[in-house]
Amino acid sequence: MPTLNENSLILGEMRGQLRDVVYSVNNLSAKLDGLTREVVGLGPLASDIADLKDRIATLEAASNRSEGARTLGTLLLKSPAIGWLVGLAATAWAILSGKAHL
Fold first, then answer.
1. In this predicted structure, what is the pLDDT of residue 18?
2. Cα angle at 41 between 40 and 44, to 5 degrees?
3. What is the pTM of this model?
């Protein structure tokens, strides 16, 4: 059976360990409070990200339409068949309107 002195030592050791546990819990609580504030502060970012995704999709669609129009225009300008047709049409117009004689 432990003596009174041994019981006092055991009780002191338990107090010290309990104090360490309380300190650790308080420290962890402070960290969780900080994390909670940061998470709550990041809440509006979700809607901002969704808005930015919509804007990017709109810009990409506009860019694709513009690129398609430029590609078609370039194809028409580089096509020799279109050149021949334009030349033929101009010649026919000149002959029919009397601007050129055969």
1. 93
2. 95
3. 0.41
Amino acid found at 55: R
Alpha helices in 42-102 (DSSP H): 43-78, 80-97
Residue (of 82, 62, 85) closest to 72 by Cα position: 82
Cα–Cα dist 90/62, whole Å: 35
Residues 25 and 1: their CA atoms lie apart, in Å, by 34
Mean pLDDT within 30-56: 87
Tokens representing 99?
A: 């601007």
Buried b (16+ CB within 10 A) or exposed e, 18-56: eeeeeeeeeeeeeeeeeeeeeeeeeeeeeeeeeeeeeee
59 pLDDT above the threshold of 90: yes
So what's the pLDDT on residue 52? 92
Q: Given this model, what pLDDT does residue 1 score?
A: 62
What is the rounded CA–CA span in Å between residue 15 and residue 32? 25
